[in-house]
């Protein structure tokens, strides 16, 4: 099976890390479905297609069970050829560019973060499992965060909790799907230049920079390269792993 027979579905692909991941997987030969809540996803898919790759753009809220359930019908012949799922969509609400403290966190906001960052990947994975099992080959990659591994002064506790939950989910899923030739791994980015990071209050990114041995914030492409590796045949014997992509800002 070549990558041309392995459709990749990337959530949160309109911009940032998701767009870079979609572009990288497309350049590796995968037909790519870009899913996002933003209309911008159409433009992003078109710009990748302009480089000669097969893409489709869909509007999808990953936390919407009915919408995820409708994916097979929506994607038609692309769906049975699914090979790679990248659960990248995520949110990190801020108050004036700063983290929300636990004692000030409305339950509604807590629930939305968990819904998008953790329940979304569950819904997408659950939908993809029958296809990947049937094919006897599959790759699921979770985009978690360094905030799952250590406390953060920039993101709210709900964000760290959702991303730590995602790592736990990935490990359990890896154990369930290993016998079917399907691997499940996580990438844990540090501080990567994107719209999410640009929204931080003045000084926060600069303070973080001082803790990065490689001396720079990450680029979306730094993460995309690792995701592409995890999605490849070269990573066949890797499952249940969490790869830190943070320039050395976290070393377990
Ligand atoms: N940028 C970083 O430093 C960093 C660090 C660690 C982890 N991450 C994670 O990487 C992923 C991408 O982040 P980014 O920095 O590119 O952020 P971003 O905000 O620039 O992009 C996130 C994308 O996800 C989409 N999205 C949000 N909610 C959605 C939903 N319910 N359904 C579908 N799409 C939805 C957004 O519309 C957006 O296009 C996130 O999961 C984030 O938590 C980012």
Describe the structure.
The chain has nine helices and seven strands; from the N terminus they run E-H-E-H-E-H-H-E-H-E-H-E-H-H-H-E. The longest helix has 29 residues, at 107-135. It has one domain (3-236): 3-Layer(aba) Sandwich (Rossmann fold). The protein has a seven-stranded parallel beta sheet, with helices on both faces. The protein has helices at residues 16-27, 40-49, 65-69, 71-75, 107-135, 157-177, 195-198, 204-209, 220-230; strands spanning 7-11, 32-36, 55-59, 82-87, 138-143, 182-189, 242-245. By secondary structure, the protein is an alpha/beta fold. Residues 11-12, 14-18, 36-38, 60-63, 88-92, 116, 143, 145, 189, 191-192, 194-197 line the site of nicotinamide-adenine-dinucleotide. Nicotinamide-adenine-dinucleotide binds at residues 11-12, 14-18, 36-38, 60-63, 88-92, 116, 143, 145, 189, 191-192, 194-197.
């Amino acid at each position: 099976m070549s990558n041309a027979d392995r459709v990749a579905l990337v959530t949160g692909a309109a911009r940032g890390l998701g767009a870079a991941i979609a572009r990288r997987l497309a350049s590796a030969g995968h037909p790519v479905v870009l899913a996002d809540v933003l209309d911008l996803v159409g433009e992003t898919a078109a710009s990748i297609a302009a480089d000669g790759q097969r893409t489709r753009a869909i509007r999808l809220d990953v936390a919407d069970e009915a919408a995820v359930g409708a994916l097979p019908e929506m994607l038609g012949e692309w769906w049975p050829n699914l090979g790679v799922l990248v659960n990248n969509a995520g949110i990190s609400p801020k108050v004036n560019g700063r983290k929300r403290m636990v004692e000030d966190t409305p339950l509604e906001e807590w629930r939305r973060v968990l819904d998008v960052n953790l329940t979304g990947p569950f819904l997408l994975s659950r939908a993809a499992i029958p296809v990947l099992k049937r094919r006897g080959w599959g790759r699921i990659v979770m985009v978690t965060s360094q905030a799952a591994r250590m406390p953060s002064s920039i993101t709210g506790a709900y964000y760290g909790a959702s991303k730590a939950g995602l790592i736990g989910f990935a490990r359990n899923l890896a154990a369930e799907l290993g016998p079917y030739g399907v691997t499940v791994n996580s990438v844990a980015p540090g501080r990567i230049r994107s719209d999410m990071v640009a929204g931080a209050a003045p000084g926060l990114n600069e303070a973080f920079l001082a803790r990065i041995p490689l001396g720079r914030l990450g680029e979306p492409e730094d993460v995309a390269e690792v995701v592409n590796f995890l999605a490849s045949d070269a990573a066949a014997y890797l499952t249940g792993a969490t790869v830190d992509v943070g320039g050395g800002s976290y070393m377990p």
